[in-house]
Amino acid sequence: MSIFEYNGSAIVAMAGKECVAIGSDLRFGVQLQTLATDYKKVYKIHDQLFIGLAGLGTDAETLSQRFAFKHNLYKLREERDIKPSAFGQLVSATLYERRFGPYFCQPVIAGLEPDGSPYLCGMDSIGAQETAKDFMVAGTATDSLLGICESLWRPDLGPEELFETLSQALLSGQDRDCLAGWGAVVYVITKDKVIARTLKGRMD
């Protein structure tokens, strides 16, 4: 078993019209044994920016704390919140610093730029970036998530349509992966608010 599959995860981010959404499953397990069913893998950086961390749970916790620390330093120095595109570069550089002993995590970044345009970015464990205009997936359920996202996503979705589309894709995708599941949490980010909702999924 790959170290990336040790804890299991399913993370999806999707772009809409002046909104963006990111969601993850809630299972925390050690290989095939489930230990907790309320483990969120999406972390808030600020109101317009979230990061999902798929991979080894301990490294995800470490990285989330490092990114929060680096954002706080940036905010003290610049007196403003970091832009999602700049944060993507920061995450990439942080991972690449440790390329000879990497963190076993695949980040997915979702946020709104100051002009309201959605920003989606994903990368591997050493920070090789890839941006997308539609959706980005990570975790052990990647194969099934990609297929269902391609089927359901369409351009210029509103916040409620985006929530519905991402939720259906995430629940369908994680149901086909025994290492992810047990419900999900979804965040929809718009210019003036963040909507957080918890979904019930199959409990097997």
Automatic annotation (TrEMBL):
SUPFAM superfamilies given in the database record: N-terminal nucleophile aminohydrolases (Ntn hydrolases) (SSF56235)
InterPro entries per the UniProt record, alphabetical: Ntn_hydrolases_N (IPR029055), Proteasome_beta_3 (IPR033811), Proteasome_bsu_CS (IPR016050), Proteasome_sua/b (IPR001353), Proteasome_suB-type (IPR023333)
GO cellular component: cytoplasm; nucleus; proteasome core complex, beta-subunit complex
Keywords annotated in UniProt: Cytoplasm, Nucleus, Proteasome
GO terms classed as biological process: proteasome-mediated ubiquitin-dependent protein catabolic process
Alphabetized Gene3D superfamilies for the sequence: Glutamine Phosphoribosylpyrophosphate, subunit 1, domain 1 (3.60.20.10)
Subcellular location: Cytoplasm; Nucleus
Family matches, as PANTHER family: METALLOPROTEASE TLDD (PTHR32194), PROTEASOME SUBUNIT BETA TYPE-3 (PTHR32194:SF10)
Family: Belongs to the peptidase T1B family.
Subunit structure: Component of the proteasome complex.
Protein name: Proteasome subunit beta
Species: Chlorella variabilis (Green alga)
